[in-house]
Amino acid sequence: MNLHEQIGALETGVDQLIQAFTTSRQQVEAASSAVEAAAAAVEAPIETAETTAEARAEPQEADDAAADEKPTLHIERPSQNEITMTIGGKSVTLHPSQVGQLVEELSNARASMEPEVPPNLPAGWRFVSTKNPVMAVQKQSNGDRLLVLRHTGHGWVPFQFSPDMVIQMYMMLTQK
Question: What is the DSSP track for 81-136?
Answer without folding.
Answer: TEEEEEETTEEEEE-HHHHHHHHHHHHHHHHT-SSPPPSSPPTT------SS--EE
